Amino acid sequence: MSEITAKQTQNRFKDAQWFNPDLSIVIAGLGGTGSHVNYILCRQGYHTCLYDMDTVEVHNIGSQMFGLKDIGKNKAIVAKELAESFGNDNYIALGEFTEDSPIDNIVFSCFDNMKSRKLLFDKWYANQLSKTPEHRKENPKEINIFLDFRMTAEEMQIYIVKNKSEAEMYITTLFEDSEVEDAPCSYKATCQTGALIAGFGVSAFLNYVANKLTGFDARDVPFFIEFENPLMNYHTYSLKQYANK
Length: 245
Known about the structure:
alpha/beta
């Protein structure tokens, strides 16, 4: 069984328009959202860089992709081990994300605080702004996307940044951590919401990949997605719709 690779496990979706295991991605934050995002994406075979300095604690077990055997281990290391158990050995676990950390064109922002979220976006956006018009013209299928996952126990929001106009709007959604009203410790996160936000976000990402690889914008990739579990309210917004929201 140890000789089975990710390529062998991908037969059920290898002909999908979005299938491209050669992509390189960053998943930053492996908690209530990121651990579920990683659980889905690791099946794709991507070259993945993980960032999280935290260790697994008992209260993480109920809502995150960790088990009792993982308590005390670094979350990024455990996420890497999970990917390897599905045949993907293209993983690097780097711990804390800092101003000097490597960044990539595809970023999943799954931090639970605004300070780290902003730092991550600033690094990604600076990388995007450094690309010349000539580079973009010569690389029309290059995937450049930033997905920001925000979640409470029963609500989720996803921002998806794909161009400069969306980046400028996204910046307006960033604020200081001190402005956030802290939820009770016993009602901060749930596994079902973590799984939902990961599924919605990864689906939007794969739509974008399919559009890029085929050269047609046939699949919807909104700027903003939100879902409320109690009322089962699901909404997507284009940049224009979000601006008028």
